[in-house]
Amino acid sequence: MLKSMSFDPVLKNEYNGGVQAVVSRDQPAVAGEKDDLALGDTAEFSVSFLSRNSSIAMIGGLVSQGIRFLVIVYVARRFSVSEFGLLSFAIAVSAYQFVICHFGLPFFGSRAVAKAGRVSHGLLAEVFCVKACLALGGMALSTGVLALVPGVSRKELLLVALFGLSNLPLAGFLDWAFQGLHRQEVSAILNVILQGSWLMLTVAGIRFGMGVSAVPAALAAAALIASTIGYFWLKQTGHIGRFNGDQPSVLRRSWQTLESAAPLGWGILLNTVLVWSDAIAVRLLRGEQAVGWYAAGNRAGLALATLASYYVQGAFPMLSRASYDSPAQFRKFFQHSYEDMAIAFVPGSLWAIFYAREIVLLLFKNPQYLAAVPVFQVFQAIFLLTALGNLYGLGALVAVHRDRDYRKVLALTASVFIPLCIALTAFKGILGASVAVLSTQVMSLILFARKSRQLVRARHGQALALPFGVGLGVVMAGKFLTLTLIASAVLLGSAYAGLIAARFRRDHLREGHC
Q1: Are 310 and 57 in contact (CB under 8 A)?
Q2: CA-to-CA separations, 225 to 198, 217, 220, in angstroms, rounded
Q3: CA gap 507, 105 in Å, rounded
Q4: pLDDT tens for each residue of 318-337
Q5: Are 467 and 343 in contact, with CB atoms under 8 Å apart?
Q6: What is the pTM of this model?
Q7: 28 by DSSP, 3-state: which?
Q8: What's the burial of 147, exposed, middle or buried (CB within 10 Å: 0-12/13-18/19+)?
């Protein structure tokens, strides 16, 4: 019964062209060929395989997002708070441009590749064509709208336009194809190449006198490098070619792909509204310096939320395949992902809340940024809510093709968030903006859990009890022993080592018992 409830008719043919993702359970996507995907049936997989794939994705995400955060820190140290505020505003707007360009297509493509076991040239052409057109449209729309907004400077418009142009080479970034092929290690490497190139080119550009414009220009060059490497790497896998469903009219098939991906794309766009509208509201209502403080407070939480999304991306292909093969296996994989994420993030977030002041000073080396400490603390709680909501939204609803439910939840949340954020920012400044985000993330999580209750039955106590206990233990030890930031970080690292060892042992015993 669960399987019949979980699926949309689109599952029978994910694409009208490009690649026929799923023709039927027993019929391969390419006539006369066996589906050569290593993960042909999720019954063959263990939870350790899920943890391995997701951990690789998350570690790659940790490295790549760590490098990305270094870009932000480097720029914050090299320029004034006001100039950093200008760049932070442009980055917030670029998030909208980015999501308009991608419009859910990476998840859409990854889901199709996971079921088909291969990538067709038609699929690559469709995704690239759609993303490139959306990139140009998103840049034109964002710069045109901002040009009409009083108080937005020409420099801010230039930064926004440059970030928009960087989405053109990003249209060819193929990490999603490797995720669908369960090659998360390649996806992780490509993301590290992208962020590492961005950091090096940003440093070089600033030293050559390009100013803050070096940041988006460096991103465009780094995207071109990573996209080129990804394409040639994909050709070496042997999973790419021309398959049934490829047709000569790329433009027509691209439009069909865009129509199929639209519910998911609108959901991703609405999620971006929830993530980035607060910074825009702070900039317009409180000024450049305020948004600089706000960015210093929320960037760590946003980076961690992105890191958590890498874990979900790593688990997503297996969750999607399991939802098609076995509802029981799907629920097992979902619970395991929940427990992994709780272990990975809960203790560290509790520790960061307690040592927020020391962390902010260490990162930014400027006492002016101490105004960001309350925001930093609130965003650690926001991050945990966002991570769990992401698992429920993408890992449960989207994995079983309930894209419209995903979109409806985010539409309702966004309709509450925007007026609430404007009101609280006007009344309480940067702290009010962070409280607005916290409130709406609670709402979003509750709605996602309700929509997913027929698909998964999460055991919250089993997932959260031990990580919360360990995190609180580290915080209490730091408080009563008056440990420094470094000493407490060592204690936290030891606690994580114990948690991970216990986790691996329990998984090994479970698999041995099975």
Answers
A1: yes
A2: 10, 13, 9
A3: 33
A4: 787 777 777 888 888 899 88
A5: yes
A6: 0.67
A7: coil
A8: exposed
